[in-house]
Amino acid sequence: MVSTLEFNTVMVLQHGQDKFAVLPSLLTEKTLGIGYRKNDSELGIWLTTYLAKIKQDGTFRRIENKWFRDPKWLKEL
């Protein structure tokens, strides 16, 4: 099965690496965006600044680890 990295990661967390595997490199790459009004430059600046800040202080990595590396949250489903 070919699917998104996020979906495949959840499948591995739920069912184990003996059932599913995630390839070491991506077949394709997708980008995500956040839509906001063209004339709302203040929001654009805030979003850019916020994302840079959470990447720099490690928050982005902690969020990524929580949802895509640590399976604890799956038990709450």
Count of alpha and pi helical runs: 3
For the biggest sheet, the summary is: none
Rounded to the nearest angstrom, the distance between the terminal CA atoms is: 23 Å
pLDDT < 50 runs, ≥5 residues: none
Question: What is the average per-residue confidence, as pLDDT, rounded to a whole number?
Answer: 87
Helix/strand/pairing class, anyone?
A: mainly alpha
Large-scale geometry? elongated
Q: How many beta strands in the DSSP annotation?
A: 0
Output the helix-strand order.
HHH
Task: Give structural notes.
It is a single chain. The chain has 3 helices and no strands. It is mostly helical and 77 residues long. It has a domain at 35-77. The longest helix has 16 residues, at 41-56. The chain is elongated, with a radius of gyration of 16 Å.
Q: Summary?
A:
With 77 residues, the chain is mainly α. It has a domain of 43 residues.
Top keywords for this entry?
mainly alpha, 3 helices
Topology:
Elements: H1 5-15, H2 41-56, H3 59-68
